[in-house]
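Let's study my pick:
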Amino acid sequence: MSQDGVSWVRVGETDPALTTGTALIEAVVEGGPGLIAVGRSCQDSSFPCDSGPFPTVWTSIDGSSWIRTAVSDQLGDIMDVAVSGNRLIAAGSVTEFDEDGVPWTRPTVWTSSDGVDWSRSWQGVAARNEEYPPSRGVIGGLAEDPDGLLIAFGKAENSAGNAVVAVWSSMDGEIWERIEADSAAFVTETGVIPLDAAWGPTGFVIVGSEVADEGFDVAAWNSPDGREWTRIDVIVQDVDTTGSFSSIVGTESGFTATGPYGFGLGEGPVSVWTSNDGQI
C-alpha cells in the first residue's frame, strides 16, 4: 500500500487469503466493498496444484485484509477485472476435459453487482490444449471506451484451427461477439502473446510480445472502434529493441506503454514509451 506511489508498505504477509496454498493475483481494481483482485488459487502449494487452480476473486475494504473466493469449481484463471457502469466484469478461462482426458479451454466472463457474488455470464468456443498454461481459448484482458463498448483480447482458433490473437466485443458484458477471426491483423503467428489493452485518443491499442528469429519483438494492434483492427508495424521503430510491451494506459494526449515483460519475454532493461496516436 502507498499514499503517494513512492513509499510502499507491504501488507497481508500473514493473511490466510493470500498465503494459504497457491495464490496468483493478475489484476486489481477499485470496486465492490473497496478493492477487488482476481486471479487463480488452490489449497495446496504444489505446481501444478493437486486440485485446481480455480478462478478466484479477492475482496478487501482497505487492502490490508482480504477475503478469497473461488468463483468456479472448474480449473481456470481470471486474468482481468473492470468496472463497467454499475457492474463488474471479470474475464479469463476455464478448462474442461473430454472422455479421453484431453483438456479443452473456454474463454469465460463473469459479472457481479457488488464484487462479492459472481455469476458466469458468457463462454466462448472451447479449444483443445495439450499444454499448460493453455495457448488458445483464453481471454487475457479487458478495455472499455467512453461509450461503454467493452473489448476482451486473448488467443483462440481461426477457421483453419490455428491459434491466433482474438478480440471479442460487448456492450453489456453478457453478449460477446468474436471480431474478425480471420482478419489479416490476426494472422497465424507462433509465439504471439497479447498482454494488455487501453482506450486512448485514437481508439483501442493492444500490446504484447512476439517470438522473433532472435529473441522477442514488441507486438501491437490498433482499432478506432474495437471492430476494425490493424497490426502496427514496429519493426522499423525503436520499440522493437524492447522486445515486449506488458502494460499500456491511455491518456488525453496519447498512450504510455512499458516493457519488457518477465518470464523470458522481452529484452533489455525495463523502459517506458509514449505515443500520441498509439502507432508511432
Summary: The chain has a mean pLDDT of 91. The helical segments are 16-19. The two ends are 34 Å apart (CA to CA).
